[in-house]
Amino acid sequence: MSDSSVERQASSAEGSGAGRPPRVDGDRDPRLEGRVLRRVAFTEDRIAQRVRELGAEIAAAYPDGGLLVLGLLKGSFIFVSDLVRQIRRPLQVDFLVVSSYGNETVSSGIVRLVYDPQAVLTGRHILLVEDIVDSGRTLSRVIDVLKERAPASIEVCALLDKHHATHLAHPPRFVGFDAPNEFLVGYGLDHAENFRHLPYIASLE
Ligand code: 5GP
Ligand code: MG
User: Which of 14, 47, 94, 151 could crosslink 117 through cysteines, CB 3.0-4.6 Å?
Assistant: First the structure.
């Protein structure tokens, strides 16, 4: 796939950004390590638009009280950095490291909490930010741990929801997009630690 076709695909997938010149020279997007995109599921423009909307929704949902945005690393790092700049109210940011997939594209079902935030959670409104909800195991485990610290509230904001999780005690209150049933990379999402830096969200051949 030529790079300009990557850009065209990125633009046409959601019907925005058409007519922009390609931003990368050469035959392929050099960020892809020779891999070929199956399709761009969400373009950079579409993501930016949705993140602005989510920021406004979140600001309106928390009229007052201490808000702690807690990102689940690594997958949420780009989403969190864009999202917090769209939430027009006081807040603080911290991160948790959770590992659930290793280098596989299929869930192992094992969730490890590798790091705990230093922040005091007691009495605070926690907004847990997740890249993508699949089985919901990661979320359930993290929420159980956080609840022990007696926060005032816990809500979840997920960029993507695959809607495979049923009977979640805490379904995400804020969702960016319904995710297609494909393995997605980009905008923080990896495959074996690659492709996190793609500005769009795509599936690979
Ligand atoms: P769950 O615990 O809900 O089954 O899985 C959630 C985690 O699995 C996400 O935080 C993410 O790290 C990973 N995951 C689930 N689906 C995908 C996907 O389509 N692409 C990538 N890169 N990671 C995924
Ligand atoms: Mg991952």
Answer: 94
pLDDT tens digit sequence for 162-192: 988 777 888 999 999 999 999 999 999 999 9
For ligand 1, say whether the CB of 170 is within 6 Å of any of its atoms. Answer: no
Q: Output Rg (C-alpha) for the chain, integer angstroms.
A: 17
Q: Rounded CA gap, 131 and 102, in Å? A: 15
Q: Are 63 and 49 in contact (CB under 8 A)?
A: no
**Look-up: residue for tokens 């969730």?**
111
- The answer to whether residue 82 is catalytic is no
**DSSP-based three-state secondary structure for 137:** helix
Which candidate, 163, 162, 139, 143, places its Cα nearest to that of 153?
143
List of residues 6+ apart from 46 with CB closer than 8 A: 13, 14, 16
Over residues 108-133, the pLDDT tens digits come to: 555 667 666 667 889 999 999 999 99
Catalytic residue among 29, 82, 131, 134: 134
Q: pTM of the full predicted structure?
A: 0.83
- The domain made up of 44-192 has a fold known as Rossmann fold (3.40.50)
Rounded to 10 degrees, what is the CA torsion of 34, 194, 137, 92? -140
Closest CA to 177 of 133, 135, 147: 133
Return the structure tokens found at 176.
């960016």
